[in-house]
Amino acid sequence: MISKNRTINEFIFLGFSNHPELQGLFFLIFLIVYLVTLLGNLLILTAIRINPVLHTPMYYFLSNLSFLDICYTSTTVPVMLVNFFREKKTITYEGCLSQLFFLVTCAGTEGILLATMAYDRFVAICYPLHYPVLMSRRVCAYLAAGSWLCGLGNSLIHTGLTVTLSVCSSNEISHFLCDIPLLLKLSCSDTSVNEVTLYVASVTVGLSPCLFTAVSYILIISAILKIQSAQGRGKAFSTCASHLTVVVIFFGTAIFNYDRPSSGYSLDVDILVSVLFCIVTPMLNPIIYSLRNKEVKGAIRKLAGECGSKRS
Known about the structure:
single chain, mainly alpha, Rhopdopsin 7-helix transmembrane proteins, 10 helices, 3 strands, globular
């Protein structure tokens, strides 16, 4: 459904327009980042799929995260790569709404999924005897499905409200992607409902998972410090170190991306922050889990060895 109030058919991205001489270099950099993101997350998915040792709740959620990161980066990067070869960097109205829908879905889902993974680590460390019951296969499926449904429902609401807006002042977006605040700035309609909804969503889908994750790790660290042996403390902390690193990067860049002042920053700074949040973070996640997790590293080496033996 497309709003009858709109008067434009496409948007023009101004992102990276300040450096026309670097378009070729930007294309090469983001192409490499995109390919590394796809390869890294596909390796994680395949390793978890074929290795029975990794058929546990923690890696079940990690496989969801890897699939999500593939969707996340694929929402913006392909369009951006194509636009590097265009003098006029455009996206259709329908394409902009589609990008907005998938971007908001993936961002919301990832925050809730990371909070779910924090809960998994909390149960594993604080209630190890009850872990098989509290994190059964059915419970894990419900938690993962709930994360996706919350992200999807939040995105449907925002996209539906965005469709009703009239965009008539300008079709130039000072960015390389379509996001809710950017489109609200272009609207000549009353955006009060959209702004209230965005504020409520930032608290429920954004801030709440962040606070839940923070509280979970406070309790986790408190429980780890009570372990008598240094070896036991090291082993317990190693099981959540990778996830904690990913959490800090995701929520840190998200807060800086959405909760900083709207004025006082140049277009280049806006672009850099969004690149870190939307493009670099999905690339770092599989790297962090591969480098800091012995089981994942072992599974990937085994997978690489099997591929090598088949070729020979």
